[in-house]
Records
---
Amino acid sequence: MKRRRFLKILLAFLGSITFLSFAYSFLKFLTSLPSKSADLQKLTIHKSDVPSGEAKNIIYHNTPAVIINRPDKGYFAFSRTCTHLGCLVEYSKSNLKFICPCHAGIYDLDGSVVSGPPPKPMTAIPLKIEGETIIIG
Amino acid sequence: MRGIMRYGILSWILLFLLPSLGTAGYKKDFEDAFLTKPWAGEQIEENVCISCHASQTMKPEFQEITEAWQASWHAQNRISCEHCHGGDPRDAALAMSPQRGFLGTPKDKDVPEFCGKCHIGILTNFLESGHGKALKAGKKAPNCVVCHGSHNIQKASIDIISEQLCTKCHSYERAKIMKVALFVIETRISQLEQRLQKLKREGIYPGADEKSLFSTQAEFRTLFHTVDANLVRSRTDEFTSKLDQIDKNIQDTYQKLRFRKNLSAFFMMAFACMGVIIFLLTKTKDE
Amino acid sequence: MLTKIKNWLDVRIGLNTIFQTHVLDYRMPKNTNLLYTLGFLAVIAYATQAFTGIILLIYYIPHPDHAFRSVQDIMTQVPYGWVFRQMHAVGSNLMIMVAMLHMVTVFLMGNYKRPRELTWVGGVLLLILTIVFGLSGYLLPWTQLSYWATTVVTSMPTAFPVIGETVSQILRGGDHVSETTLSRFFALHISILPPLYLLFMGIHLFFVNRIGISATPFGKADEEKRPLTEYKRKTYPDGYPYYPRFFQKQMYMMMAYFTVMFFIITFLPTLYFPDEANVPADPFNTPQEVRPAWYLLAPYQLLKLIPNKFFGIMLQLILVLIFILWPVLDTQQEKNVLKRPVLRGVFLSLIALWVILLWWGRS
């Protein structure tokens, strides 16, 4: 009888450890959303850094990004990663477009594809304007 | 009653089988029936340029062009005749019409702009280089086709810089210096490429790192076209740090994979032990 | 404390009597073996799929632009997301295997024979539902493998002369696999199939319990003689109580099931994920090899072999029909499969053929 009791206790012990491991995993699964930590990293720049009609290259969350000051529509931020194969697009002031130097993907200043191989528009990054500063993210 | 039911069912079966008395070649027919449009999605459209240039009525040199293109990296990425030469690939009458933007064969001097329609970063760097300036001045100089070929264009690699190719105009010494300057980064890039492939096989899709690697490689290679070894050397650190970042991401991912293996092994052992205990429990009970 | 709760419940539900009749006094035949637990295992497999599926539902996004990325996020960003995804993916294959094993053992023991025909029909329908579950779920990660395998499968009804095209259109929601198909399959997978499955499972289990477990010894001397004129539940008064012995067997098999599942997750995590399963779907690029999942490889290979595609599909349908109606078609009284060499031979060679076709279809 002693052996049976021992086995039963061992079974209960193992069973609860397994169950608790799953429960723990499930709880972490539900609660630790990665974007929470990302929210803490916001980038702040001054309006004076981006004159009208110009664009500035920045790094946001380890990815190259660009913030552009459109005279008619204000400030916009995009990821510079071309949606085709990942090259970095460049702002062309003369053409008023974003151009990718790898395979001539061309985006307009809204980020949408005008011509070339990119399958999707540029990823927009949200930003907020507070007074003289721009908060990106 | 039972007998009638059996015969009833059997006769229904025969009735359905009657229409299928035709025959056909199986594998090809299957592919034709199930793997081509409209439901397959992939639209393999007829290209008028290829139909004419590959036919027997063409000069052998022209026929070779289509074969060369089929083997190229361009062909694999669905870049075909009209993307470079213009014209209309669907309309035989207007296939080579200037109305549809047909450009014909570019002259040697105009080849950089011809390829630079798409490869604009490289065009900029090339025109600034010794090679580019010489070409525009009318001197003996290489254009894109000299090193990369015109139709059988393969993925660029450092081996294009070779004694055989570069000594056509000058000593190999200068080309060697370039090759040495590029070598370290190029090797590292191909190693990282392989490791990313391996990672994909483990079930992780390293999308961001793949794009970052491609971008770094592209930027590095356009730099080559300036044929300025000093420039390449001075910017090597910058590229190395980008590659280091990708390397670190890969290491982190492998570490995560190791943790996962341990955790699922733990679960497996837990269940196996519980199974053993239950088995022992059945044995220890006297009936 | 526990006794107090039990008594409280007993006064209101009569819990003790239920427990007494169905667990403690329920007698299992003396010679049951582990194979008798396969049905229970299928229920456990279904429950695992349901739980892990609901958990995955929390982060999955059913739109072509986001589906692949959301599954990747579950695998790489969400803490322990990979555990639940792997359990769900491996579990789906294991569940189909368990269901098939259960079917094979039931067939070989002749347990589809009267008065258990309805149970068998319900079982085959459950197997078909399980496979439809697998089919609809296959598309959801929106990978190259998903997209093209679904393209092939949804094109098969076109072999029918008049209604074929319409059926394919209904399945796909258009001319080719698109976001409509994804929405459709998603709705099927999470909201139509689960209650259907539960319904059939409930009916199936009710039948099993109502008519009694079928066990050896079989033979013409068995009480299930012709003609059957009245309902009689099969009981085993000299068998052993369900609890604890048979319950232990079931628990043991459940542990074995999860051990196998986690063995695959630990040592063979890419068993069900070939290269095409790790790249996003590209409607303009057909991969070299377009193959459905392993449980559909045998029918797929058969289809490739038969020259005429209409005949091919009809043959498959007819085989399924024969399978469903087998209790009615099988007229011999003899229940003991050891005394029926022809049936045994035919059945075993059909299984061998199935395995051969499967292996052939892999290359």
---
Amino acid sequence: MTDIVIAGIGQTPVGEHWDMSLRSLAFQAIQAAIQDSGGLKPQALYVGNMLAANLSRQAHLGALLADYAGLTGIEAETVEAGGASGGAALRQGYLAVASGLVDVALVAGVEKNTDVIGPDLEAALATLTDADYESIHGLTLTAQAALIARRYMLENHVPADGLAGFPLTAHANGAGNKNAMYRKAIALDLYQKGEPVSEPLNIFDVAPNADGAAALVLTHRELLPKSFPHPVIRLAASTVASDTLALAERSDPLWFAAAQASVEQALQKAGIPREQLDLFEYYDAFSIFAALSLEAAGFAKRGKAWKLAGDGSIALTGQLPCATLGGLKARGNPGGATGVYQAVEAAAQLRGQAGANQVTGARYALIQCLGGPASIAVTHILESMA
Amino acid sequence: MEIPRHWRLKQQRYGLIGEVCPHCDTKIFPPRDICPACGQEAKTSFAFSGRGEVYSFTTIYEAPTGFDETAPYTVALVKLKEGPLVTAQLTDLGETQPEIGMPVEMVTRRLRSDGDERGMLIYGYKFRPVLR
């Protein structure tokens, strides 16, 4: 099989875009990605979106966005996998190009969270849990993470501020990303004073739901324009695994089995040991998710990943830089766009375009987005061909 | 109004009726017809005792629509005596601070309201500290 490459990347700043609609956000990212690719002409559009039907009263984003972007006529559809929707859209783009049926695929993730606030936003987000056995009991995504965190912290003797290293790392990195929602480092004492959200989580353990759009242009390496101006980035692996939707139905709620399976398969596909990975964009929608993702990916023993966050191992200069442009916590969590942001950011790192946050000499990047508590895990490995 | 959606779950909501696998004897809740332990067909009904202990719990302050009137409230993963975990609210706590390992038992309580004054009241299982 020929190499499938990320030819173009585009993103909007993540934040509260009261002045921009779902379609205008998506268009901005799409336009940037196509331009960045040297003007490749997409034959198909895969939209990653999680809740537009609910939050924006708008379904059918394939037709809407293809048309709005001036691409009327091309294949277009939406891909939904909860919080992993963006990664799942990238997966569909990868499959389309890999199949040989599509030469140039456009992947766009978009979410417009801020048109709805308070109980209605919580209710929309809760539709991503099991309706019959979780959300009917008032469970929310944040509470799911809190249930995991409380048990994890008890079993592993984690102190009350033991997960602080994850948001501290994210915020330190967000400071160097002009597209991040929060661009200011935070100190440990601020974390310690954080307002409780669902104990043991405080406000700094929960990534902000935000608006944003990101886009990618995928193609075969040999179809790149002769004058292609960037280092070539290849998708070395693309994998997806699933677990129970309801947290309660797992034999072990403290283990992200789907995350583990998709990383193992991805490493096998890429043909590299995990030690060769230069950075990891994990899914830190909640601090505890970052810890469990590091454990599932094999970078820490069970119950120990929180120590990596405290000792600098995941900082930009550490052994395995994580959330290198702020992660979900500081860049912001624009739902179905998040997985596409991760790919855009990892591609920027591998191209050497990450500015103040550049990870020196990065060749392999691992990115992973999760739907719910890793009910779906979508994993990609990007490789620089420079 | 979503009457059938809740009506068809009445056995689970009011009776904690799940299944038992005829092949490996695993107790299953909620019912799913395929045993998660051995992968074989499992359609035999099984009524859980409603006894268990708290596996984990948290408090929700920012609640979804339909639950915002009762916030803050406590949700838990309850480890049933027969094996499975179940998601449910803790109730009748009074002055009791919930903790992991606390013995609890099932009771039937109102889960949520439909919002308008003619809307349906949905009842189902919650768990309270075991009465001594």
---
Amino acid sequence: MHNPLADMPFRLPERAPAVSRPLATRLAGLVIAVLAAAACSPGAGGGGGGGAQTTITVAAVDNPQMADLKNLVSEFQSKHSDIQVKIVTLPEDQLRTQVTQDVAAKSGRYDLFTIGTYEVPLWAKKGWIENLSPFIAKDSSYAPDDLIPGIKTALSYKSNLYAVPFYGESSMLMYRKDILSAAGVTMPDHPTWDQVAAAAQKVNSSSVSGICLRGLPGWGEQLAPLNTVVNTFGGRWYDAQWNAQLTSPQFKAAVTFYVNLIKTAGEPGAGNAGFTECLNAYNSGKVAMWYDATVGASNFTGDAAKNSGYAFAPTKVKDWSGWLWAWSLGMPSTSKKKDAAWTFADWATSKDYIKLVGTKLGWAHVPPGTRSSTYQLSDYQQAAGGFAQVTLDSIAHADVTRATVDPVPYVGIQYVDIDEFQQLGDQVSQEFAKVIAGGQTVDEALQKAQQLAAAVGKNYQH
Amino acid sequence: MKTSNGTVLPSVVERGGVRESAASAARRDAWARRLPLLPAFIYVFLVTQIPFVLTIYYSFFRWNLLKEGSSSLFSGHRFAGLDNFATLLTNGSIRTAVANTVILTVSVIAISVVLGMAVAMLLNSEVFGKGLMRTLMIAPFLIMPTAGALIWKDTLFNPLFGLLPYLLSPFGLGRVDWVNRFPMATVVAVEVWRWTPFMMLIILAGLQSQNPEILEAAQVDGAGAVQSFRRITLPLVRPFIELGALLGSLFVVQTYDSIYMLTFGGPGEDTTNIPFLLYIVGPGGGYNIGQASAIGVVAVIITIIVATFALRTLFSIFRVEARR
């Protein structure tokens, strides 16, 4: 077993005694370590073993709703003693990486995982996830018609449900009524972006910023709110022939507006501000308004919880610009315990589970935005008061198939539902982040983004 | 084989037998030493060289996890020849990444060597609370890189809640977004913070091997502090500095965690180095295993070139030693 690296030109100058040899060997070892580090990253491994008692492994996104689910698993197991449930929670980006590798390499580590509206149609088409309609048909009490229609559409492929929604969200404008009224600003229920910008500039001061908008690079972070702005400004990523449209006047107007609003009245450090950072800023009274996921309002504390008003996603040309997202339970087709996995998915997304969360953990904890019946529960209406109706109406009006003014060849509101969008969106959002940081102009960023998008568009032009 | 000389034959045979058994004993002895090492050697060989060979193999194939029909490890990939490498050449990202890697590595090593030297000098002198100081100085190297970067980003640099903007607010710099305005400087600062203790430890070892009598003699001969540092101390610790710089740069080239936590390679591609580019193209969104493998192979080649170059030029010390 000759080490191939020993022949590499690590030869030290001649007559280098004693010290040199071990050093050279050590260096060779280090280089091997470098190689190993470089080589190991694409690996995905693991495997699930079958046991007498069925154990199912669930990969779940690390958010408050999933933490509640984890707490209530014992309730499930007391009813189904033959099924052991193991829930693995991971942050969103790591979950996505892990689950994608797992399902693509067919390693079958998980029996269920939380995926979003972005993944479901793509993975269903590839046959990576199981069609759940036959399972749903077997349970007469599941009531799939109770699922909010927009969410159901987004999770379907060829009219079959491929994942069941655990919680759903749209986007809305959240604002501090006290701060706005102190500045003499009233916010309409359906504001335009111009009204929001004017209000933000008016209340912006050295201690309180006007508005928090995500600037953190990432297709699921910065691009989510920005894409809803692009949509309502009349912009789009591709025309019907998959020609990239990022340098179109509408797209440029939207990005310019978004960036300028952040620069003139946005939170400091916008380049690192994502959902969590904005939530913290809003909760601590450092920003007066926040345009983000409807689920944000469930996490308000203190003054933010007491004095917040809620308006629908701001618009420009197109009405109802809110996005649509649902963390849902999908079942990889490689799972060997499909029936047990479905039993759990059924329980976790049922009407009864919502009532269980309400009675056991409090009604504010109820996972919102999945079932129409949730919004008829008087206990929930009381707990979610201010934002329940805005959430429900926003989700009801969000249509993943008609998000833009002009026709597009893709589905998705705050994303383009193609495989390449994760990388494309990440790269494009990095360019916009550079604009926010002052490193380049909107035009320069859009030029680069256009090239990246055009390269991806070519894959679809056949 | 003459029976007349009956005594010769057995003795020759015996002597040959002795020689033979001595050789086999030596071989057995060698194996007795080697054998306990073998499991470790085989293990290291398997876990490092198989992935390496696989990486080279995949770099010649078109394999994207998101594309249909490319699921298993060895089937369903289309042979791509040198396409993955050609893409690298035409794509500007790799050039930016190489440039960023060089900038990051050179500045981190240069600054941390200077700072490490200064701290080592301080700790080598008789100061109060030396032991405690040394422990505190080593701490950054022991903190997990991810946790360290997170502390820098959220408790020090955060423009809303951070300590640095708070301290600088009297100077009108209270709401400066350091991480995004000066991304590379931020990453360099955090990495310098991490690697200074490493350099300090190595240089301190060198300083402590210095004979204080020589310094005293220099003092008697009228050499000032600067002179004796330049003429006596520096040449003495030079091999230690070189060793630290070489080992450090091999690690800093691979910086990934702090970039992930601090800037995520941005804004734009301002802090995307080679390992981070590999992550983005591979498991971090692109899922393009073929392309990522090609980047890995290129990174290895560059590392080998840099290491060789560094060995040849930096290790002038061996030449000096040999001349002596």
